[in-house]
Amino acid sequence: MIHIISNPTMTRNEIKEFRNYMRKCVSMNFTLEEKECIAKKKSEIKEAGEAIRRNNGGKNPILGF
């Protein structure tokens, strides 16, 4: 079972950084370097998912279909 910390303790600086990052995500205001990093990570995740399905006969082992 995964234990969730519903309210982790954060410093004021961590809260400010989190809010700034959330604003950046919502407005999609990323630099070219960050966009490339995001695209690379998305493709890695997609490839990993496809490899998992290939290894399980085309089925998603988590969902069962």
Record field, number of beta strands: 0
Low-pLDDT segments, ≥5 res: none
**Global geometry:** flat
Radius of gyration: 18 Å
Number of helices: 2
Largest sheet: none
Could you describe the 3D structure shown?
The chain has 65 residues and is an all-alpha fold. Helix content is 62%, strand content 0%. The longest helix has 24 residues. It has a domain of 34 residues.
Quick summary of this structure?
The chain is an all-alpha fold and 65 residues long. The protein contains two helices and no strands.
List the helices and strands and how they pair.
Elements: H1 12-27, H2 32-55
Q: Which key terms come to mind for this protein?
A:
65 residues, flat, mainly alpha, 0% strand
